[in-house]
Amino acid sequence: MAHFSGKVLALAGGVGGAKLALGLSRILSPDQLTIVVNTGDDETFHGLHVSPDLDTMLYTLAGLSNPETGWGLAGESFRVLEMLNRYGADTWFNLGDMDMATHIRRTQLLREGATLSEVTAELCLKLGVQHRIIPMSDDSVRTFIGTDQGELAMQDYFVRLRCEPTVASVSYMGAEDARPSEGFSHALEEADLVALCPSNPLLSTGPILVLPTVREELARKRSGRLRVAVSPIIGGAAVRGPAARIMTDLGHDATSLGVAKMYQDICDTFVIDEQDAKEAPAIAGLGVKPVTAPTIMNTEEDKVALARIILELGGGFQHDE
After folding, report:
1. Which of 153, 213, 308, 311 is the one with CA 20 to 30 A from 96?
2. Taking residues 112-134, what's their average pLDDT?
3. Which DSSP string do the residues of 51-73 spell out, in sequence order?
């Protein structure tokens, strides 16, 4: 039997990030793993503070997520949304009845003066999630997409318009004045291994990395700390979501190499899928070590296997006699 010694910080957003975080949580103890999650997607719907990426992570680690979508809750119903629709409310953002309870409770606690970090910790406690899930910031940061249909909030682009507009820019409103959450800063200081999960580099990890001091700290090579990224692009396409299309719209190569170029200053090792093995030499040319492995995570076994590969790169596995 083997176990990993050391502390791991995972930077994540979206379903891909939640999948790898689940794999890491199956190997690492709660005091070894901190998962910092994008909040640039946060939005207000029906007067409620909705944190889609935090909730995807929460439900995934709680074992409650919808296995067909990767987001939302299994066995969900939508009676509240149906009634809101009868009242003439905009209901294009799909909020289920049980999911709505999460947003009600979050909004209540925020209005009572709790920080988003404190609220997230409380929700994790109540759902039995022991590993730390931490918002990237307790300050408001909002991702906006400049498109051929105007400037759009993230959820308008992603959900309401189904990623159809052509993208001209991505910006993070409020990021300059925001601070990394206290838990994020602490985990970044302590981490022996930082894992950039296979999340959209512009919409998921982008808001995290643009926070003041974060990219600078990650770019600083530190003895004993390994920085590993996993490509969200496989065979020239995103496993899910609009990452490849947005990268192309903005002039990036929609390839693993294209993502590696975006991360090369903050990454020692870049994990690519076996389908993209031909890109390894070019990635090595960036000064980043390429590692080829199966990165598609359809089953829990897939998630754990990829997490184990990442941890082995850190050299922190100890084998019991």
Report:
1. 153
2. 98
3. -HHHHHHHHHHHT-B-TTTSSSB
